[in-house]
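RECORD TYPE: inverse folding
INPUT: structure tokens
STRUCTURE:
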């Protein structure tokens, strides 16, 4: 079914790794200001039954472990950006759940036998792509509008993904809307997933009249509505899936990351009403250790764990929620695998310096595997998703996106802080090699999603 990765990755000196982590950290910090995208067409927020009470949720939950926790201690104080640890100890080895339960009647949705949509190559095709024009999308984020911000070439818009053993069904905006009729499609995750959400809106909005569409920015949840189809396309900011001190979509530039590995309900109570869910989580776990504050910890003692270990706990909590609460028969869930970064040009052009800045062509070598792909993370994702018996469909965009060193904004996006002349004179030093220009790579992720709906 899924193709195994036989590709070997190169060795990179420790200094590269340290540099990589620093760059990621600095770019994620820049995120603080991307809330500007929410400042479009504000509408009164609809507060319907969706915001159900946390406590009620908690009591209804069939998990014996949480039930136990609850009966002994009052519900924990919700984490926010002012939360702190009274002290920090080493991770104790505590797990969230011992097993992931899977309902037996649940439907299984694999890709058709013999078709691996995710192994293939990029084909230059300026007749079929881009699927929309940057300037025609009124909701476009200044973080992703590369042409508007001075990118001299449009080449990154013209690539089509061609799987080796099959053809993708052609993107059809009418057909997509029909699939979404009467439904809520929700993206849940970090800024990469927000990029995919924005791509989806840009792909779809042209087919509905401007006066029959609206966007409702809320703190955490942003909702695009299309009246004609009674459908919504939503984005929920939940960068580590579980509850954390970074759940403010705007202000999360924090010296330490604190999360509650056993608390998924802050976010699940919002996403549980969606019909189609698209999850991701990755880069937030690549910034060094995180702190765990368990729900039954009353004196504020945190446990410190490395990012990967934290990710595994968070994904287990998520998988447990999915296995015990998600209606796989009538709904669909997707997990988008890690989105690779391109911080080291020497990886695709040995002996050179720099990063994705000025790159205009995809990588053509199919055996390419950059250090922006963290293999241990891939293994954790594989493990957790396997325990869900493949019922969550994997959008395995990692390798195909790894070829697209040309697809990042680099310096062609809005930067919220003022850049000094010295910084400006070294474009590579502030290039964004994490996110993706639109139209571009994220549109193709959505074309892949379209194949499974
Ligand atoms: C994604 O694809 C890679 C490369 O083919 C593979 O190693 C990995 O196991 C896949 N991940 C999942 C979750 O299927
Ligand atoms: C949760 O606790 C209540 C009372 O403390 C008990 O009646 C109930 O059976 C427990 N539920 C589970 C799933 O363990
Ligand atoms: C954050 O939580 C603390 C309790 O831990 C509370 O006193 C404070 O008002 C909260 N701050 C915000 C901005 O919500
Ligand atoms: C497509 O690309 C070809 C080759 O670069 C070029 O000759 C042609 O003018 C392009 N067509 C469009 C519509 O951009
Ligand atoms: C983009 O705009 C150009 C010229 O304004 C037009 O020819 C082209 O068809 C548009 N493409 C799409 C996908 O709407
Ligand atoms: C797109 O889908 C609609 C509705 O399913 C169909 O009527 C139309 O023919 C399709 N268009 C193309 C170009 O395939
Ligand atoms: C719109 O969709 C919702 C489900 O998302 C459904 O409950 C409602 O009845 C629909 N309304 C109409 C007018 O079809």
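DESIGNED SEQUENCE:
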């Amino acid at each position: 079914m899924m193709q195994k990765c036989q590709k070997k990755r190169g060795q990179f000196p420790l200094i590269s790794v340290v540099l990589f982590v620093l760059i990621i950290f600095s770019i994620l910090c820049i995120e603080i200001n991307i809330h500007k995208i929410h400042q479009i067409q504000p509408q009164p927020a609809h507060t319907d039954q969706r915001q159900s009470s946390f406590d009620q949720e908690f009591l209804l939950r069939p998990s014996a472990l949480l039930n136990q926790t609850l009966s002994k201690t009052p519900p924990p104080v919700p984490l926010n950006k002012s939360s702190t640890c009274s002290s920090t100890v080493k991770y104790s080895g505590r797990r969230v759940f011992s097993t992931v339960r899977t309902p037996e009647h649940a439907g299984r949705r694999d890709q058709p036998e013999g078709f691996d949509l995710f192994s293939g190559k990029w084909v230059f095709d300026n007749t079929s792509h881009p699927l929309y024009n940057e300037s025609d999308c009124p909701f476009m984020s200044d973080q992703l509008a590369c042409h508007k911000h001075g990118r001299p070439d449009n080449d990154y818009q013209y690539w089509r993904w061609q799987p080796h053993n099959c053809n993708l069904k052609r993107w059809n905006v009418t057909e997509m809307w029909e699939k979404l009729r009467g439904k809520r499609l929700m993206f849940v995750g970090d800024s990469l997933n927000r990029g995919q959400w924005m791509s989806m809106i840009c792909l779809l909005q042209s087919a509905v009249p401007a006066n029959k569409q609206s966007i409702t920015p809320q703190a955490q949840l942003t909702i695009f509505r299309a009246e004609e189809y009674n459908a919504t396309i939503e984005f929920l900011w939940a960068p580590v899936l579980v509850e954390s001190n970074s759940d403010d979509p705007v202000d999360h530039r924090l010296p330490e990351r604190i999360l509650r590995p056993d608390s998924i309900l802050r976010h699940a109570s919002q996403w549980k009403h969606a019909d189609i869910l698209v999850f991701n989580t990755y880069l937030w776990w690549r910034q060094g250790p995180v702190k765990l504050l368990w729900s039954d910890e009353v004196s504020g003692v945190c446990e410190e764990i490395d990012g990967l270990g934290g990710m595994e706990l968070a994904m287990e909590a998520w998988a447990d929620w999915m296995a015990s609460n998600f209606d796989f028969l009538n709904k669909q869930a997707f997990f988008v695998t890690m989105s690779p970064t391109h911080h080291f040009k020497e990886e695709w052009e040995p002996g050179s310096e720099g990063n994705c800045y000025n790159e205009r062509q995809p990588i053509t070598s199919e055996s390419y595997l950059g250090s922006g792909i963290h293999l241990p993370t891939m293994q954790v994702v594989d493990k957790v998703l396997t325990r869900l018996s493949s019922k969550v469909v994997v959008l395995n965009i990692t390798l195909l996106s790894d070829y697209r060193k040309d697809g990042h904004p680099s310096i062609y996006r809005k930067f919220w802080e003022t850049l000094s002349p010295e910084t400006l004179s070294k474009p590579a030093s502030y290039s964004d090699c994490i996110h993706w220009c639109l139209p571009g790579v994220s549109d193709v992720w959505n074309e892949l999603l379209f194949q499974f709906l």
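NOTES: The chain is about 25% helix and 15% strand.
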